[in-house]
């Protein structure tokens, strides 16, 4: 859980740094899948620093996913929105109200409940159909991102963030389905789902952060990378809770995600 929380700090800080860089870059094609925008943004030190934090966060995320259930990791990563809001207050001059600070406390309370209730990660290896399905979802993320580029700025940021979160959610599940970096894994669709989902997530999140609200984009990110992977972990990979504490795990998950979404509702620059 400490590794998952460390990953959340890295990802939340990286989102703000990447938002600053993306907004400073010249506008691209307007598509949600804009490689030109990504290449312009990556020339800036803030975006590179964000990528470095993402890399550290990804390593911590892998460690967490190898030891605790996906639903616990996903809820911990949802707290990255609290980090984003706090860092935005310094770098993007966004004032946090009492409600927003309260939402940060709600997220922390939910994570505490999850930490108390989490059991061991499941031992299921996942079917070949599940691995193919993940690859299909990763491809669908790119299609949704391309279409979302035509939406108005407000809904565009949310939809692109949701699609990016789904891509990162594919990565979360795929990590559990890739046993090792061996030649045999080259025949594993989950490996390609991991690569495609991660690449799609980065492209779409960069586009989402250029226009619209950082917190709106990250709210979509939270939804995409928590709910779906949690369901897959419990239903198909055997993730469990401590005996008699299922209710606390469900409550903690709901409270943590609700707190994160509350931040996305109130965490906007005030006119």
TrEMBL record:
Domain of life of the native organism: Bacteria
Record-linked SUPFAM superfamilies: Multidrug resistance efflux transporter EmrE (SSF103481)
Protein name per its UniProtKB record: Uncharacterized protein
